[in-house]
Amino acid sequence: MIEPTPGEFWQLEEAALSDVLTSGRLWRGNGVGWGSRHDSATEAVADRFEDAFADWIGLPYAHAVNSGTSANEAAIVSLGLEPGDEVICPAACPAFVPFAVLAAGCVPVFADVHPETLLLDPDAVERVVSDRTRAVVVVHLWGLPAPILEIRAMARRSGWKVVEDCAQAFGTRINGQLVGTFGDACCFSLQQSKHITSGEGGVFATRDPDAYARAVLYSSAGVPNFRFGLPIPHKPPGSIGRGHLGFGHNHRISELQAAVALSQLSRLDEFNRRRAELVVLFEQALVRRNVASVRRLQDFPEAIVSYWRYPFLVPAGSGSFQEIPYLEPAFKQMNEKRRTPFGLPIPEYVSYSPGSFPQVERGAAQIRALSVHHGLTESELSASIDTILADL
Ligand SMILES: Cc1ncc(COP(=O)(O)O)c(C=O)c1O
To answer: Strands, E, within 91-239: which ranges?
Structure first.
């Protein structure tokens, strides 16, 4: 779904884009690394965006990339895992999440979720642990606070790493602390529908300098474009070229994306206030219309929830959650045609087809989510409430 955002909404972004175009520099350059510096004499807008993002989230290292999926990949790679290591993913999440695990050379193993929130269930995580488990991706779906404290405690006891996927959770706090800052690495998406957007784009952040270095190398073709004071390895005397220190993709963000993302970040609090207002309007509409078929999710008294979409419970069979990553056909295709990025078939015990996880299907059948995009007017919200209620 493309979220509606009126034209006049983009004035700040338009000015920022115009500045980039006037400057003539549309890519961020090779940064401070070994590459050509002809267009790197001035600070890139992408640098400013990373600084602002690191400041906002309160972590020392942030790296902007070209999509949320690239940020997920950077987060997995940052953990320094070995090929074939297992990474637990929630049974309810967009397929980008397990695909990023595969792209980073690891094996996604799914764990069931709570049927009344679709958030990862710590007991279900326990049930899929094996001696190859090395990490877990916790997705703060819809902006809800996933049980990160319980899962982080399990991870610490077992020596696993934790990635927080905050693609849908810009600004959610647990006990006053921003989600994204509880784990070893976090990733955010800047795709069109998200709290802030540059059309496509993503950000990775961490407090660990080694994790940051691994993520940067992977995302910029192995070139050490390190920032935030991280030392750049010396270029061997007489060597030419960019200095690719290892394998990496080109997942660089462009200056055009970064300019829009930076402007949007400066408006995040304003957007989140509007989202909170739309949630209140929805709840008031339910009371006013005396809608018995809709139930609120559980309360999260420890959290401030920054909703991406607003989920609610409906009679069984009326739910509409789509993001169940049944990846069996993809696994089959990968095994038959090109295997996996780590050169081995996906192990047989990793499968995900309808019926694999009962709670995710129970939850998907009884949960709906309303768009509370900050660009919505009250009449648009009201029209979408009408559509939902007419359908129940
Ligand atoms: C939870 C979650 N993770 C990752 C992604 C991937 O982000 P992108 O679409 O920007 O690649 C998304 C985006 O839809 C998402 O919702």
So the answer is: 107-111, 133-139, 161-165, 173-174, 177-178, 185-189, 202-206
Q: Which residues, 6 or more positions from 346, have their beta carbon under 8 angstroms from its beta carbon?
A: 102, 107, 331, 334, 335, 340
Q: Which residues pair with 202 in a beta bridge?
A: 65, 189
The token pair at 353 is 């087809």
Cβ of 120 closer than 6 Å to ligand 1, yes or no, is: no
* Ligand 1 mean position, distance from CA 73 (Å): 11
Which ligand 1 atom lies nearest to the CA of residue 93?
Answer: 1
Sequence-distant (6+) residues with CB within 8 A of 214 are 77, 78, 79, 80
**pTM, to two decimals:** 0.96
Going by C-alpha positions, the residue among 242, 165, 187 that lies closest to residue 53 is 187
The secondary structure of 9-31 as a DSSP string is: GGHHHHHHHHHHHHHT--B-TTT
Evaluate whether 145 touches 172 at the Cβ level (below 8 Å): yes
pLDDT in tens, the chain (392 residues): 556 677 778 999 999 999 999 998 899 886 544 444 444 557 899 999 999 999 999 999 999 999 999 999 999 999 999 998 999 999 999 999 999 999 999 999 999 999 999 999 999 999 999 999 999 999 999 999 999 999 999 999 999 999 999 999 999 999 999 999 999 999 999 999 999 999 999 999 999 999 999 999 999 999 889 999 999 887 777 777 777 888 999 999 999 999 999 999 999 999 999 999 999 999 999 989 888 899 999 999 999 999 999 999 999 999 999 899 999 998 888 888 777 777 778 888 888 999 999 999 999 999 999 999 999 999 999 999 999 888 88
- 352, 354, 356, 357 alpha-carbon torsion, rounded to 10°: 110
Q: How far apart are CA 392 and CA 322, in angstroms?
A: 17
Q: Is 197 in the pocket of ligand 1 (CB under 6 A)?
A: no
- Which stretches of 14-167 are assigned E, i.e. beta strand? 61-65, 86-90, 107-111, 133-139, 161-165
**Cα 83 from chain centroid (whole Å):** 22
Atom of ligand 1 nearest to the CA of 323: 16
Return the ligand 1 atom nearest residue 193 CA. 14
- 95 CA from centroid of ligand 1 (Å): 9
